[in-house]
């Protein structure tokens, strides 16, 4: 298995804003981890993912059982280094192309 870049996101508890499901309501944060291959395409994708994060596109707030919480947004992320596509991990030969198209 090759080396991987690992991105860690720690989202704090806060209040939602206009455009979220329930503006002004508190939401539950969480810790999120994603992986990219450590190669030229992986580094290029990391730069694009960083821009998406800076523009607020990486996460969204969803209501679940009456509680607002942060979840992954529409941009696909690999949350495991293994397990294949079925487990949101590698190997997945199409991932970098697919995420590049979304970004």
Automatic annotation (TrEMBL):
Localization per Swiss-Prot or TrEMBL: Cytoplasm
EC number per UniProt: 2.3.2.27
Predominant location category: cytoplasm
Keywords for this protein: Cytoplasm, Ligase, Metal-binding, Transferase, Zinc, Zinc-finger
Signal peptide (from-to): none
One Pfam family per UniProt: DTC
Pathway participation: Protein modification; protein ubiquitination
One GO BP annotation of this record: Notch signaling pathway
Domain Deltex C-terminal: 9-100
Entry annotated with the keyword Ligase: yes
Keyword Ligase: yes
UniProt-listed InterPro entries: Deltex_C, Deltex_C_sf, Deltex_fam
GO MF annotation: an example: ubiquitin protein ligase activity
Catalysed reactions, as listed in the record: S-ubiquitinyl-[E2 ubiquitin-conjugating enzyme]-L-cysteine + [acceptor protein]-L-lysine = [E2 ubiquitin-conjugating enzyme]-L-cysteine + N(6)-ubiquitinyl-[acceptor protein]-L-lysine
One GO CC term on file: cytoplasm
PANTHER family according to UniProt: DELTEX-RELATED (PTHR12622)
UniProt similarity note: Belongs to the Deltex family.
Protein name: E3 ubiquitin-protein ligase
Organism: Ptilonorhynchus violaceus
